[in-house]
């Protein structure tokens, strides 16, 4: 039995030496060290040996197994190293090739317009305020002098969730909330950009979801001339120093008096063309002096405090500034349209 083990050791080591790939080496491992291998068969006959011979043959069997296993492992390491060198040689990378271009996105046109508006008003000392898009009936309507039964509260105009909750129809509730937080004793100078929602049919100039930027100033001795000065500065910075503005009488429930602001037509310089429908002017936003009722509901004494408010649509500003003819372009995510306004 001792001679048989030594013979198996010599055979196995020779076959390990002759193995030229990992598969052949694995076959040697299974053949000699597996459960059905010849070494295992030899060990099964140890029961016929005397007590003195058993430990000697057992130790020899273990030495033979270990010798074969070590030889296989050493050979495996060499074959794996050789295989890796061959793979690296076959898969070499040409580092001189140009890299694949990475296409970097940019801000959406509306995002850029809103940020530009924010920068303009921050430069004039305004704060940026935000509020919830799901708003209460009180802040969306009642606090803005829109009592129950007012036409603007019609269900056809608003997305109601419950009788007291709806998707805000304008960002004006942020103004009401801000004044309420001031408790009627602090001055306010703020703008509030954000999304608003109305039940409208989508077409080239209307959308059920759009954006607004509204502004509010409340303090002592605020006059209509202050409003005109702020709007004039905004128009010239946004559209160019050559643009003129005009204020026309209008009506809004939360301002009194109310006005609409027009800017002189960029295309014709105020002479009249198809863009401005021959008037030389293009409507841009609504504004007015804050209604005394709105001030009073927010806790301000209208005998001491006064203020002005204005609201504009970034979509309309973008359409006028860049000549976009359909509001739906802003929301359909056509990459060809969006890339035109990406500033690298």
From TrEMBL:
Gene3D superfamilies associated with the record: Bira Bifunctional Protein, Domain 2 (3.30.930.10)
Entry keyword Acetylation: no
Enzyme Commission number, as recorded: 6.1.1.20
Cofactor binding note: Binds 2 magnesium ions per tetramer.
Signal peptide (from-to): none
InterPro entries membership: aa-tRNA-synth_II, aa-tRNA-synth_II/BPL/LPL, Phe-tRNA-synth_IIc_asu, Phe-tRNA_ligase_II_N, Phe_tRNA_ligase_alpha1_bac, Phenylalanyl-tRNA_Synthase, tRNA-bd_arm
Known catalytic reactions: tRNA(Phe) + L-phenylalanine + ATP = L-phenylalanyl-tRNA(Phe) + AMP + diphosphate + H(+)
Residues annotated as binding Mg(2+): 256
MF term (GO), any: ligase activity
Top-level taxon: Bacteria
UniProt subcellular location: Cytoplasm
Pfam families hit by this protein: Phe_tRNA-synt_N (PF02912), tRNA-synt_2d (PF01409)
Aminoacyl-transfer RNA synthetases class-II family profile domain segment(s): 109-320
PROSITE patterns from the UniProt entry: AA_TRNA_LIGASE_II
Keywords: Aminoacyl-tRNA synthetase, ATP-binding, Cytoplasm, Ligase, Magnesium, Metal-binding, Nucleotide-binding, Protein biosynthesis
Family note: Belongs to the class-II aminoacyl-tRNA synthetase family. Phe-tRNA synthetase alpha subunit type 1 subfamily.
UniProt protein name: Phenylalanine--tRNA ligase alpha subunit
Phylogenetic classification of the source organism: Bacteria, Bacillati, Bacillota, Bacilli, Bacillales
Gene of this entry: pheS
